[in-house]
Design brief:
The structure is a single chain. The protein is an alpha+beta fold. It has 2 domains: 53 residues, no CATH class; 56 residues, no CATH class. The protein contains 3 helices and 4 strands. The strands form 2 sheets. Strands 1-2 form a two-stranded antiparallel sheet. Strands 3-4 form a two-stranded antiparallel ribbon. The longest helix is centred in the C-terminal third of the chain and has 13 residues.
Length: 118
């Protein structure tokens, strides 16, 4: 997909989106958010070499979603809406973890997003 591709169909983020995503970099790291000088970069949610989303065990994933703190990077999740997700049931988080475990890994292919929507 071309850089800057808009996957969102109208009316979200303007007209022209076609609903297609770039499967090679879906949920990979590298999208910058925030103004210059205060940029936060999105994390990679694809599985690591061991099949763990973002390298997290299920327990670490649940704690991360509920607290907004990434125990592997010892960092807070500034751009993730964890205050909303923290109320999900354990069953919901198990399902999300299973889904993220099943998608292709961007880590093993050294891929990352260059822009939102990639």
């Amino acid at each position: 997909m071309p850089q800057g591709h808009n996957p969102f169909p109208p009316p979200i983020f303007g007209a022209g989106g076609d609903g297609q995503i770039n499967a090679a970099t879906y949920l990979a790291r590298g999208v910058d958010f925030g103004p210059p000088g205060n940029v936060v970069t999105s994390a990679n949610l694809t599985p690591d070499a061991n099949g763990r989303p973002a390298g997290l065990t299920l327990e670490q994933f649940q704690i991360t979603i509920r607290t907004g703190h990434d125990p592997l990077r010892n960092d807070d999740l500034a751009v993730m809406p964890w205050p909303i997700f923290r109320h999900m049931t354990g069953r919901d988080l198990d399902a999300i973890y299973a889904y993220l475990s099943s998608i292709p890994s961007a880590v093993t292919h050294n891929k990352h997003c260059a822009n939102a929507g990639q």
